[in-house]
Amino acid sequence: MARSGFAEFLVARRAELRPADVGLPEGGRRRTPGLRREEVAVLAGLSADYLARLEQGRDTNPSMAVVNALANALKLEGSARHHFGWLSLTACQGAGCPGETPPEAEVSETMMGIVRALNPTPAFVLGRQLDVVHWNAAWAEFAGPLGLLDEPDRVNLATYTFTHPAARRVWREWDAVADLLIAALRRSQMRWGADTGIERFIEELCRTPEFALRWLRHPPSGFTNARLALAHPVHGPVTVPFETLDGAGDHSVAVWLVEQTTARTPALRLVGKRAANE
């Protein structure tokens, strides 16, 4: 039986913790890193057999009391605990899960109008799988030299980050961007649990070892707002704040606040001036 994200997280988190982290003696050499299943079961007040069923995906409906007990045993706090709770709510498979509706094929006129109105601020529309499905002239001008538009038939932030040869040079904090994108895909997977297209896309990305390794770590942060540290081929090193605004349907609007960097990087003013004339 395939593991849910909840089951994967349980196994990954148990492997991360050391006995000393939870007040237990080391107890000599261990065959595998992390806590033993029996240790977590005792800490959570569960049977080892029940925990095994949760970790193997044979039980996908834990009560909130069980989820909270496991969160305490695994020392989860803040965003990690929130992420764990959401995973427990979407641990089911099949028809009972959210997201049975197929993805929206077209971007609404309203959303496209918003992106156009934001020009000369770079902005674009994101789909379920982090596809960039619509953008304005300012974003095209800024993102083009980064290589993001090298394959215009499918512009995808995750594919670019994990497979494009320039990505590790462009993202000056590549690790942080990689984790943000994986967290965003986890969020999509939870929101649209029955969308087989998302599952196929994740399977495709898991052929890249770095993605597969990070996917199992379950970075808890969401892809809503942060800063992108870029080595831009035209404008040099810049740090660009961004915001992602979720829409009512499948799509969201992402805004790169390039204008906030212009005081420190005068060359960026040219991006806004040229885009405004298009």
Key structural traits:
single chain; six-stranded antiparallel sheet; alpha+beta; 278 residues; Beta-Lactamase; 2 domains; 434 Repressor (Amino-terminal Domain)
Polypeptide structure, described:
Helix 8 (157-163) crosses helix 10. The chain has a 6-stranded antiparallel sheet with strand order 3-2-1-6-5-4. Helices cover 44% and strands 13% of the residues. The protein is α+β, with helices and mostly antiparallel strands. The protein has 2 domains: 5-92, lambda repressor-like DNA-binding domains (434 Repressor (Amino-terminal Domain)), CATH 1.10.260.40; 109-276, Beta-Lactamase, CATH 3.30.450.
- Strand order, largest beta sheet: 3-2-1-6-5-4
Largest β-sheet summary: 6 strands, antiparallel
Shape: elongated
Span between N and C termini?
54 Å
Structural category is alpha+beta
Average pLDDT value?
84
Number of helices: 13
Q: How big a fraction of the residues is strand?
A: 5-15%
Number of domains: 2
CATH topology of the largest domain: Beta-Lactamase
CATH architecture of the largest domain: 2-Layer Sandwich
**Radius of gyration, rounded?**
21 Å
Question: What topology emerges from the helices and strands here?
Answer:
Blueprint: H1 5-16, H2 37-44, H3 48-55, H4 64-73, H5 78-89, H6 109-118, E1 123-126, E2 131-135, H7 137-143, E3 155-156, H8 157-163, H9 167-170, H10 174-191, H11 196-205, H12 209-217, E4 225-232, E5 236-246, E6 252-256, H13 269-276
